[in-house]
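#random but structural
TW: two for the price of one
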Amino acid sequence: MDEQDLDRIIASCHPPPDILAYNPPYEVLFHAKGKHPQRNIFKNQVFSEKELEKLRRLKDEIKKQKLQLPKDWDDSDLLKFVYGANFKTRGAFKALKSCLASYSDVFPEDYMLIYSKIYEILLTGPLYMHGRDCHYRPLLIMNFAKFDLKKYTFEQYLQAACFVLEFASKHMLFPGKVENWMCISDIGYRGLSDLPLNTLRKITQVLQDVFKCRLAYSAMINTPKTIYFIYSCLKPFLDPVTIDKISIAKGNVATNIIKYFNPYQVEERYGGKSPNLNVFWPPVFPNYPVALDDYDEIKPLEKKNVEKYNEPESAPFEMHSQEIIDVEEINNAMDEEILNTDRKKKSKKSKKSKRRKNKKIKETLSDIEPGDINLENIEPLRSSPQSEKNQTQELMFSPNENIIDEINREVHSEPIEEQADPNEMLIDTTQNTTMCSLDIGLGQKCVIS
């Protein structure tokens, strides 16, 4: 493909002229859902005091570490890493370093230099762009059923994915108005044995590192029963802000995504009215308005049986309206399960500790070695009030009544009273007090009352 053809492709990808009159509403400027705050539009914006303070801290860290940034970057680019790390400076700096390293690995020089290497992959459609929503955001389709690692290598797929998104960043967006894309991930009902999880994890990590704060919303469709495990494998490579934007659908229509689109901007297989593509490059932007004027005119489509690995036909929107599962609920369930597991572990440890403690308390005097007893360290214990039913008897030690003369190895009593016979044990049941004699191995016997 010559340069003139490439120039025509670039021109066809630019936002339509009426975007000049478009002003993004608040819900487009900011993503208000989920647990973490998120700004979607960064260019040509007035930043808050908190944002400026976090930017200052990040720039101080960059200066301290002497990190070299691209020449065309400004504060708006750095602020994306602040949001991606949930306003934590160390996390933002770490993500920034990872981004620069990943970008240089994928694109050693100009990203257009790899175009000829991945051109054939782009035609097969593992990921491609089609249409815009009512806020002019392009729609990214990721079709995992199209990944064929027997024909192409992981590096080629990674380069293709980064090329498409870098191309979109350069030519499909509009600074200050459109800075994000929507995404539909078509799993194709593939299970664990059919999906290249290692490849998906690596691609997810690189895309997460390089294209910060570019995702507006994402939905997984045509999902198998093992989708939650598959998602749990990819989740560690996503920042908290991105996780809040992902949802999972059980059917083949992502209602929470499609509701933003004019139906003529979406392919039929995904619930729209635009013809399905067979060739996936160059990007397709149907010659229809992006407004939702005739959205209500969509007629329910016939639901057809879908076989595994085949791309299913579209189904009625209303059939799937209750099937969208917010990932936040999944996260909460996982967190609750982790907390319950931690509680059980702590409970088991506590019970073991109590058993060990009770075992020590229940040791009889006959179990104590003679050399372990030191009467000088024994302190008086006072018995607590006991009910008539309480049969527990306490040994009451009174060191003031027993003094050991270590020189003479004799035991005396103060005040002087008639000493008990050491060979006898007297149990006074009326006073609930036990008197016994204890041979401590010192040649004499000590009376404990």
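TW: number two ↓
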Amino acid sequence: MEGRNVGTPMNGSTAPAGAKELLENMLGHLGFAFTLEEEKRGDDVVLHVRMQNPSRLIGREGETIDDLQFLLNRMLVRGEEPAQRVIVDVENYRLEQQSALLDEVKEMVERVRSAGETVDLPPMNAYERRIIHQAFRDDPQVETVSPEGPSRLKRIRVRPRRPAKS
């Protein structure tokens, strides 16, 4: 085990009730030594985990942090009422990945703009899909569409925006 939970409380919490404490407990039981910082980002709350050796918590290609975030958000849902989304970031991994993801997708979107063809992006989790949808929601030339279904990994389709019907 790496150490004991050394999460630090923050005043004026904006996270959904119990989110920070739940994450502290989860990471503490897993034996990580860490501190937590909270940030409001748009409609979301980001819980930043600061720790030594972050790769253990991030996992291969972010799989562990994705699973932890998914589990935390599922545990926060109370009945039919949707909880505010909580993003778990470890040593700014999410921020760096978001930037790289947007750079990669922008190239594909340029292909849609210039050639007018539809492009299917690689499979993405809900967090990544949300980033893409938000980035291009006001784009007058392209639209992004996710398929319906229960799968956690889905491909976004980027296509030329259809003219509004009058």
